[in-house]
């Protein structure tokens, strides 16, 4: 009987600063982000602490931090790393050292470059099942809006589903990773009072273009939506009062 090949194991090296869990977290993030496999398997805690040259207590703090970032996936007793999430987390950490506008508006610029073409390609390839999934996310957005709730998670899922409809795994990973980096920008875009209605209107237009399998219309609808998102984010940044010290 042919045995299923096991996924590659993450290769580690001694930590640069043994006493700081934050340093272990940063090093593991870098190592995971550099992996070519989508979900490399982590060594056991015992082996990992030995390879890093750190205590189990410090390692567990670092693993807990990675888990909160969504970088780890535990299945039974085994931990798997999520390389796309690790790369997104590193991008977010670098961006967080920049001014607030750059943290939010730089990822939006990337969305303008990427997502209109993703929508156009999805319009050419999506299946009826893809349409049902998109309709479901839009329905959940509408229900949340009717209750006066934000629907950021459903919004994100809608966009990742568009990427999934392209059948291009690299695009799916890119959009999923970008979604993690864009969370703060999405939250800001929902702060203005008119944000929910505009978002729903835009998503209905995008879905209509996809349903018609019209790639040009889908591209234009996504561009319009992203322009509206940027306008709302800029409005939120302008209207938010400056923070004052205690």
- Name the shape in a single word: globular
In DSSP terms (H or I, runs of 4 or more residues), the helix count works out at 11
Strand content: under 5%
Oligomer: single chain
Rg is 21 Å
Query: What structural category characterises the helix and strand content?
Result: mainly alpha
- How many distinct domains? 2
CATH superfamily of the largest domain: GntR ligand-binding domain-like
Give me the count of strands: 2
Helix share of residues?
55-70%
Which fold does the CATH topology of the largest domain refer to? Four Helix Bundle (Hemerythrin (Met), subunit A)
List the helices and strands in order.
Answer: HHHEEHHHHHHHH
Largest sheet: 2 strands, antiparallel
- CATH class descriptor name of the largest domain: Mainly Alpha
What is the rounded distance between the termini?
68 Å
CATH architecture of the largest domain: Up-down Bundle
Q: Which ranges are low-confidence, i.e. pLDDT below 50, for 5 or more consecutive residues?
A: 15-19, 242-246
What is the spatial order of strands in the main beta sheet? Answer: 1-2
Task: Describe this entry's structure for a reader.
- By secondary structure, the protein is mainly α.
- The protein has two domains: 21-89, Arc Repressor Mutant, subunit A (Orthogonal Bundle); 99-239, Up-down Bundle (Four Helix Bundle (Hemerythrin (Met), subunit A)).
- The chain contains eleven helices and two strands.
- The protein has a two-stranded antiparallel sheet with strand order 1-2.
- Helix 9 packs across helix 11.
- The longest helix is centred in the middle third of the chain and has 26 residues, at 100-125.
- The protein is globular, with a radius of gyration of 21 Å.
- Residues 15-19 and 242-246 have low confidence and may be disordered.
């Amino acid at each position: 009987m042919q045995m299923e090949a096991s996924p590659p194991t993450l290769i580690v090296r001694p930590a640069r600063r043994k006493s700081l869990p934050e340093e272990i977290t940063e090093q593991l993030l870098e190592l995971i982000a550099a992996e070519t496999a989508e979900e490399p398997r982590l060594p056991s805690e015992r082996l990992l602490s030995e390879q890093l040259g750190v205590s189990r207590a410090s390692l567990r703090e670092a693993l807990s931090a990675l888990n909160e970032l969504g970088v780890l996936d535990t299945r039974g007793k085994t931990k798997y790393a999520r390389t796309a999430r690790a790369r997104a987390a590193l991008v977010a950490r670098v961006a967080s050292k920049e001014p607030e506008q750059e943290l939010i508006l730089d990822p939006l610029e990337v969305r303008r470059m990427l997502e209109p073409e993703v929508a156009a390609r999805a319009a050419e390839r999506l299946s009826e099942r893809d349409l049902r999934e998109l309709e479901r996310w839009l329905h959940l957005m509408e229900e949340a809006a009717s209750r006066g709730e934000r629907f950021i998670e459903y919004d994100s899922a809608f966009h990742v589903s568009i990427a999934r409809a392209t059948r291009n795994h690299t695009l799916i990973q890119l959009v999923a990773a970008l979604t993690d980096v864009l969370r703060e920008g999405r939250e800001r875009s929902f702060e203005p009072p008119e944000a929910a209605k505009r978002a729903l209107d835009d998503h209905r237009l995008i879905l209509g273009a996809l349903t018609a399998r019209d790639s040009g219309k889908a591209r234009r609808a996504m561009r319009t939506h992203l322009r509206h998102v940027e306008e709302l984010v800029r409005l939120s940044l302008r209207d938010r009062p400056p923070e004052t010290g205690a």
